[in-house]
Amino acid sequence: MITGSATADVGLLLVPAEKGGFEAAIAKADAKLGVEEGQTRQHARLLYLLGVEQLIVGINKMDSCQWSEDRFNEIKEEFVKMLQLIGFKPKKIPFIPYSGFNGDNLVEKSEKCPWYKGWSANITPKKVVQGFTIVEALNNFIQPPKREPTLPVRLPISNIYNIKGVGQIICGTVEQGTLLPGDVIGIVPSGLKDKKIFSIEQHKKVLEKAGPGDSPFEKEVAYLLSKVLREDTATMDFSSEPGPKMGACIRGRATSSFASYHESGSHLYVASEADSVLRIVDCLNGGGTPQMIKLQREGIRTVKATHHPQCVLFSPGLKNGPKKNNVYYLSVHDNKILREFEGHQSVVTSIRMSPVDDSFLSSSADGTVRLWNAGKSGNSLCELKLPQNVEGPPLAAFDSTGLVFGISAKMAGDEGNHINLFDARNYSAGPFSEMQVKRQDIEAKLRASGSTPERAYALSRSEWTSIDFNKSGKQILIGTNGGVAHTVDGYEGSVMHSFQMEGGAGSTPLPMATCFSSDDQAVICGNNDGTVSCYQADSGLLARKLRGHVDRVNCLAANPKYAQIASSCTNTIVWVW
């Protein structure tokens, strides 16, 4: 299910109309009652998390309820509620009653449901498509994605096979570009170069070339490479032709302070507080010379991509003045500030954008977290309530659905940190869940992993500097200023793994750069010796290490759409792997 959905252009979600079947398919999980989550609910969430935006809902087995209009409307109403909670837009989804056993409403309109007037769905806000059958929805409603056969090759690797007498086979789906037998490619981020493709095969047939849009399983494209070692290749890698490659795409002496990818993965925004410049990297065309936005008057401290590819949110790098605590909405097309957000009494330390709408969270050194609407200038929607027994600046982050956001703050005394979870639709009610991550639990985890009691004690008391949810919401990643990062259970707050900075943590406490990979499979951490470590998220074991920087890695970001990460240190502003 996951492998297929990850490369799908459209999802056809089928649900039974029979009594009891539909209810089981969309059931919510309840551990106390022993109820498992319905499979259709799981599939819908997976489709959304994996970026499948085009969806058709087929309500099957309508003959089992005698083609009841009331039953159809009941199922549609419940399904709409579920899809809205996940993040889909029901106006863009056709709902079709049909019977697979009898073939009703599959290819031709059935006469068994005279009440059914057909489906309608929006392709765009002003363009509505109508029809009756599932085939009509597939032919007329679904829009084929844009293919890019001329761009540099990008191929996420899904499987690797060693076949005796043949060699190593790498399987995957071409996302962009065109591959030919004899092409020389590279594999990143493992750093393998000059690997030759001997042949390209698809379902036991030899192909002359492979382009974008090939689907997996029967049509999965396999590439036979020479001299590729299995330990150097993993499913988090992707292959690329050696043309416009991504490497050290921005060089300079100014250290970058924050980096943020656009949700499409097309551009990377890099803030450099030292020279007050915002740099924009084109990630789909080999990097090239970055666009530079000079913000000498305001300065820049943090940056966050918005849903609009030509606009970003940023906090200024001003040391003094009445506007040093504001957040700005900037058009990078013409370097104009379109909106200004006032309210914090001290510098803004982080900005987090909702993945589903224009709301965003800002955390400040004044000890507050504010929720804003990026579409309107002015005051914040609210100042979030924090527990009374906290001290120090709070941290905030949305989960991948945008329905939940978390706020963490240090507990008074020497106990640890709170993580409070809020419903984004009812945040005024306060947190619906409160977790405590105790320092003694972190210390015990560090000691169990081999740290000395003294070092475990010191690391467990590092100040938190960032929190992030993985896409499933099951893990929360915590960055600190003491050369250590942690993952905790997203439901209970229990400590899962701790990752220590290699090469020493340095004499001055600085935030440890860390992030999840785009597929949730890895936790990526920057080290003091200039390397980047990739750990398995489930086991906490080191999977590989990337080398390229000559100084401490102080900034990391993962591309949300492609197997790509960006890192920076003092001598190289950004290195894209």
Automatic annotation (TrEMBL):
WD repeats: 341-373, 546-577
GO MF annotation terms: chromatin binding; GTP binding; GTPase activity; translation elongation factor activity
GO biological process, one term: RNA metabolic process
Gene3D superfamilies: P-loop containing nucleotide triphosphate hydrolases (3.40.50.300), Translation factors (2.40.30.10), YVTN repeat-like/Quinoprotein amine dehydrogenase (2.130.10.10)
PROSITE patterns: WD_REPEATS_2 (PS50082), WD_REPEATS_REGION (PS50294)
Main location: nucleus
Record localization: Nucleus; Plastid, Chloroplast
GO CC, any one term: chloroplast
Top-level taxon: Eukaryota
Residue span(s) of domain Tr-type G: 1-140
InterPro entries with a match to the protein in the record: P-loop_NTPase (IPR027417), Swd2/WDR82 (IPR037867), T_Tr_GTP-bd_dom (IPR000795), Transl_B-barrel_sf (IPR009000), WD40/YVTN_repeat-like_dom_sf (IPR015943), WD40_repeat_dom_sf (IPR036322), WD40_rpt (IPR001680)
Leader peptide range in chain numbering: none
UniProt protein name: Translation elongation factor 1-alpha
Family statement drawn from the similarity comment of this UniProt entry: Belongs to the WD repeat SWD2 family.
Keywords carried by this UniProt record: Elongation factor, Nucleus, Protein biosynthesis, Repeat, WD repeat
